[in-house]
Design a protein that fits this description.
The structure holds two protein chains of two kinds.
Chain A: H1 13-23, H2 30-42, E1 44-47, H3 55-66, E2 80-83, H4 88-95, E3 101-105, H5 116-128, E4 133-137, H6 140-145, H7 148-162, E5 166-170, H8 173-176, H9 179-192, E6 196-198, H10 210-227, E7 232-234, H11 242-255, E8 268-270, H12 273-286
Parallel strand pairs in A: 1-2, 1-8, 2-3, 3-4, 4-5, 5-6, 6-7
Chain B: E1 44-45, E2 48-49, E3 52-53, E4 59-64, E5 69-75, H1 79-95, H2 102-118, H3 120-131, H4 135-156, H5 160-163, E6 169-171, E7 174-178, H6 184-197, E8 201-205, H7 212-223, E9 231-233, H8 238-245, E10 252-256, H9 259-269, E11 275-279, E12 285-288, H10 294-306, E13 318-322, H11 326-338, H12 358-373, E14 377-379, E15 395-398, H13 405-408, E16 415-421, H14 424-432, E17 439-443, H15 447-456, E18 461-464, E19 483-484, E20 497-499
Parallel strand pairs in B: 1-5, 7-8, 7-10, 8-9, 10-11, 12-13, 12-17, 13-16, 15-16, 17-18
Antiparallel strand pairs in B: 2-3, 4-5, 6-20, 11-19, 14-15
Helix pairs in contact in B: 1-8, 2-4, 3-4, 3-7, 4-6, 10-11
The chains are: A alpha/beta, B alpha/beta.
Chain lengths: 298, 500
């Protein structure tokens, strides 16, 4: 089926990019900046998604997520660690008894080009191993062919396979390319049962951008207007500096508001962002910058 | 906050406090971030005549509308001051400027443009202090456009033969130019740059509430070593403007301001042989079709009416929404307007600055009261306005019909009148049924519709899927009571030359 089961919402590129750029002109200083930076840490999904991942590497990541910085900075724990399915057991073991959740990327991440039965089994095994959250990818090939029903059905099936685990749906917006496509994918995923919608795998450039995230936030807002249901948002990949993270929070604040300013409804998918945010926190607390050597590697 | 009661609810009225409410802007506090670039303001200013500042004469105060504190005392130019300015301009035109090759005039204009860029930050701060507009706009929109205008017309100075192929373009002589308070420096640039490029000299009268940036621009002219008398700046109120417009020694009058004053100027210039261009008021229709990109249309509505506190002659002050998307537009607009930050114009986080003057504030209040009395429904977000200064919260009216005063008269403030239509035909008819014809906006995702509608709108500027965008290369001006003549682009040279 090539037609959409809901009305298409056109997106204008120029105005979207202009609006997104306007958030970067907000000036956040001193105490509000410190609060925003700590909030950003609490929303972080620390991520390692490499072929060379081992339980040893995952342990580093988990410890970092549990205690991102020296306790005197009073920095909260990160929201989750995000790993491949084979690392879920290790991650669960290292995070036991803490607030840090374990997210697994499934459904033949990052391409999604495998039979649905494999994707569902991939998901079920990760959930059995204890994954609290599942980050799935949509089949971009099917999407770009216009097979929206297939994309929809796959998301719905994976949601079912998730059981009690939360489902984040990755669009790989760098491959969808147009804002119109991003909006269609958002509406599809939300209707198919996503708890979160997520921009990117981190394997394709461009990954998350402000305008793409804005288009997705607008889809979330429209769904809230219609149903009162709050869907979460996760920009992932490409966000490297504290300044960019704050711009995302400003955009969230002015698009969806206070109810979304929580790790339950907003996450940053990142591997290198954490230490830049921590460095800025340390500067605000200590009044000076410190060398990167003072911050632990994930 | 004021909420009007309508006896009979409009058929399209969206209930207040609808079920699913967003708590916008409550999740993150923005600390004040004032722009701190220092700007030196003198206690008193004289007039800029023949390349030098005169001793201050009888003065009037120019106040910061955000604080109501006096910034400086500025000289009120008398008829004899204006006469000296016009004579200086005449001498400069005949002896120096009119004889310079275009290439040399261009060099001066390029130099002025570069100096404006160098002084951009302090000029932006001064513009914000004297006029009340936000630093975000004076810094990111006004000043870059001011410099761009001088750069653009500098390029034309030695290419007039190509602007009007086969014709010889000669300067008119001395131009008397009267400009408004909403974009003080930008309007000065719009007037001066094309006139100078074409070989004219100028006597410029800035608005009485915003004279400071023009006077600081005069210092840039001195720094650029612009020959004495090429630009003269006379400050003052209506009498000064009248003395300039009625002076027999000028060849050209260019005016931007209200239709009422424009009409008086046209009457006094009639039969004198002076050339005239008028850029006057507007009541632009911003038309949103059901196939528009809704979220971006809401952005465009906001940019259309709340830009520069609505002190914009081309503001999209009449919103025409197709009935089928009216509820969703209004809901989104209500939330979006609630995110606008009103307050200290020098704060980088401020979206809506101060109303330019007490007089203008009273005019806005009077028209808004008339809207409430005539039964339209007023929406204003909850926001705290500063105690001192002149402020008006961003507002919009629903339930407005074409017969309401707020649908016909220019409010020139952050107040939008929302009306509905059913078919494209009706949209065009409603858009064109106004004495004005300066600008319009069209929102649709369908390209062919944009061209079809735009061609039928009686408006000088039509923006498609955007609003309030300006560029020196693009001509600007109106139909009907919005005036005549074009500023910007190659067309902007035409009012300053005679073609042989």
């Amino acid at each position: 089926m090539n037609t959409l089961p809901f009305p298409r919402r056109p997106v204008d590129q120029v105005m979207t990019e202009e609006r997104a750029a306007s958030f970067a002109r907000r000036s956040i200083k001193s105490s509000s900046k410190l609060a925003a930076l700590k909030l950003a840490i609490s929303m972080m999904d620390l991520t390692t998604l490499e072929g060379k991942d081992t339980p040893g590497k995952v342990e580093h990541l988990c410890r970092k997520a549990i205690q991102p910085a020296d306790p005197r900075y009073e920095v909260p724990a990160c929201a989750a660690v995000c790993v491949y399915p084979n690392m879920v057991r290790a991650a669960k073991a290292f995070t036991r008894g803490t607030s840090v959740k374990v997210a697994a990327v499934t459904t033949a991440f990052p391409s999604g080009l495998m039979p649905l039965s494999v994707k569902l089994e991939d998901t079920r095994l990760a959930v059995e191993d204890g994954a609290d959250e599942i980050d799935m990818v949509i089949d971009r090939g099917a999407f770009l062919r216009g097979e929206y029903r297939q994309v929809f059905d796959e998301i719905a099936a994976v949601r079912e396979a998730c059981g009690n685990a939360h489902l984040k749906v990755i669009f790989e917006t760098g491959e969808l390319q147009t804002y119109d496509n991003v909006r269609i994918a958002s509406d599809l995923a939300i209707r198919a049962g996503a708890h979160f919608i997520k921009t990117s795998t981190g394997k394709v450039s461009p990954a998350a951008t402000l305008p793409v995230t804005l288009v997705m936030l607008e889809a979330i807002r429209d769904h809230f207007y219609e149903t009162g249901v709050r869907i979460g948002m996760k920009p992932a990949g490409g966000i490297r500096t504290a300044k960019e993270a704050i711009t995302y929070l400003v955009m969230l604040n002015e698009t969806l508001g206070a109810d979304w300013m929580t790790p339950d409804l907003f996450r940053f998918g990142a591997s290198t962002l954490a230490n830049d945010v921590l460095m800025q926190i340390a500067r605000l607390v200590d009044g000076r910058y410190q060398s990167a050597d003072y911050f632990s590697l994930p | 906050m004021k909420k009007a009661k309508t006896p009979v609810p409009h058929p399209n009225a969206v209930p207040h406090g609808s079920v699913h409410m967003l708590r916008l802007c409550e999740g993150l506090a923005y600390a004040p971030a004032p722009e701190t670039t220092p700007v030196k303001i003198d206690a008193t200013y004289g007039l800029f005549i023949d390349g030098a500042f005169t001793k201050p004469g009888r003065t009037f105060a120019t106040v910061n509308p955000a604080t109501e504190k006096t910034l400086a005392e500025v000289t009120a130019a008398t008829a004899s001051d204006v006469d000296r300015a016009v004579k200086a301009a005449r001498r400069a035109q005949e002896k120096v400027w009119g004889r310079l090759p275009g290439r040399e005039r261009g060099k001066y204009l390029y130099r002025i443009a570069r100096l404006i860029q160098e002084h951009a930050r302090e000029l932006a701060v001064l513009e914000t202090m004297d006029g009340g507009k936000t630093i975000k706009e004076s810094r990111d929109i006004d000043l870059p456009l001011v410099a761009a205008h001088f750069f653009y017309y500098a390029g034309w100075a030695d290419k007039l033969d190509y602007a009007f192929p086969g014709r010889k373009a000669r300067p008119l002589g001395v131009a008397g130019q009267v400009i408004p308070w909403n974009f003080p420096l930008l309007m000065a640039a719009w007037k001066l740059a094309p006139a100078l490029a074409a070989g004219n000299t100028c006597v410029l009268k800035p608005a009485e509430t915003t004279p400071l940036t023009a006077l600081h621009l005069a210092r840039i002219f001195q720094q650029a070593e612009l020959p004495p008398g090429v630009v003269n700046i006379v400050t003052g109120a209506g009498e000064t403007g009248a003395a300039l417009v009625n002076h027999p020694g000028i060849d050209k009058v260019a005016f931007t301001g209200s239709t009422e004053v424009g009409r008086r100027i046209a009457a006094s210039v009639a039969g004198t042989g002076k050339k005239l261009t008028l850029e006057l008021g507007g009541k632009a229709a911003n038309i949103v079709f059901e196939d528009a990109p809704i979220e971006q249309a809401v952005e465009g509505i906001v940019a259309g009416i709340y830009f520069n506190q609505g002190h914009v002659c081309c503001a999209g002050s009449r919103l025409l929404v197709q009935e089928s998307v009216f509820p969703e537009i209004i809901r989104r607009l209500r939330d979006r307007v609630s995110t606008l930050r009103v307050g200290d114009p020098l704060d980088k986080n401020t979206d809506i600055g101060a109303i330019n003057s007490r007089q203008q504030l009273e005019k806005i209040r009077e028209l808004v009261d008339s809207g409430v009395k005539e039964g339209a429904e007023l929406f204003q977000p909850r926001c705290r306005l500063p105690k001192a200064g002149y402020w008006f919260a961003p507002s919009f009216f629903t339930g407005v019909t074409a017969a309401h005063r707020i649908a016909r008269e220019e409010i020139f403030g952050p107040v939008l009148s929302v009306m509905t239509f059913r078919t494209p035909e009706e949209a065009i008819e409603r858009a064109n049924t106004t004495p004005y014809g300066l600008s319009a906006g069209v929102w649709t995702d369908k390209g062919s519709k944009i061209f079809k509608i735009a061609a039928k709108l009686r408006a000088g500027v039509v923006w498609a899927n955007t609003y309030n965008k300006f560029d020196p290369t693009s001509p600007f001006g109106g139909y009907k009571e919005s005036g005549f003549g074009r500023e910007g682009g190659v067309q902007g040279l035409l009012p300053y030359v005679s073609l042989e």
